Structure formats: structure tokens, C-alpha cells
Amino acid sequence: MIIHRILTPGRTFDGVQGGSKKKILEFIATHISSDIPEINTEELFDALLARERISTTGLGAGVAIPHCRCKYCPQPVGLFIRLAEPVDFDAVDREPVDLVFALVVPEGEEQEHLDILKALAERFHSSATLEKIRSVDGEALYQCISG
């Protein structure tokens, strides 16, 4: 599975207090930039926000996949959040989101970006998989998503 190449246990978060879509995007930008020093927090936040303005990344069924390209991103990077409480993410089904997988890819990596988005969409399409992701604890959360 392609996901294990871009996600680490250190970028897998459980019980995050989201509050709003904007706060979640700030959380993503802060944590990715602290893990990947080449990436500037403000630039990443702006890129994520700009992508959301184009169209929502809330897929439905409580899942969002915010994503963007980033000039200084050395390789594709993922970050997963299981929120403590669902938040409005302007999802296509108008349901709140509790599972967020962020993807940041280098500029110019268009095919890889699409391949990863496809793998993520497939992973989060199954209701059985979503139920498992929502029910596991600790290290099992990372394993469930990346596995």
C-alpha cells in the first residue's frame, strides 16, 4: 500500500480537538512543517486553504483529504488525524468530518499526487475500513491506516 511510504506513526494523531476546518488546516501545516523543516508553516497553510477554496476536500462519510502541492516539499508527505469531535468541513454529503488525511506533494509531481489521492480514496471508501479506523486504539490506528 502506497500510504505506508508517506505516513509515519509520528504524523498519526488521535483525539485532536479540531474546532473548525481552519484550525485543522493550521494543525496540519504546523505539524508537517515541524517534521519537514524545508516546508514553511505559513506557506503550507496558505496552500491548503487555497486548495479548499477551489472545492472541498471533504469526501463524505466523515472523511476529508486536504491536499496541496508545496514548492519546498522534498517528497510526498502524509498526516492523519482522528478528531475528538467531528467538525464541519463542507463535505459533499454535508456531514461533519472526524477522519482527516492530509497530503502534501512536491510541485511537479502530478501523477504521483493523483496516484496517492486514488489510493487514499480507495482506502477510505469502505464502510468496514472506516468503522475499524474509528474503533482501534494507539499504535493500531497507524497500522490500520497504513496497512
- In the CATH hierarchy, what is the superfamily? Mannitol-specific EII, Chain A
Assign an overall shape.
globular
The end-to-end span amounts to 7 Å
Enumerate how many helices there are, as a single number. Answer: 5
Strand content: 15-25%
CATH topology: Mannitol-specific EII, Chain A
CATH class label: Alpha Beta
Q: Which radius of gyration do the C-alpha atoms yield?
A: 14 Å
Q: Main β-sheet: number of strands, strand sense, barrel status?
A: 6 strands, mixed
Total beta strand runs: 6
Mean pLDDT rating: 92
What are the segments in which pLDDT stays under 50 over at least 5 consecutive residues?
Answer: none
Order of helices and strands: EHHEEEEEHHH
Quickly give the CATH architecture: 3-Layer(aba) Sandwich
Helicity range: 40-55%
Secondary structure class reads: alpha/beta
| Tally of individual domains | 1
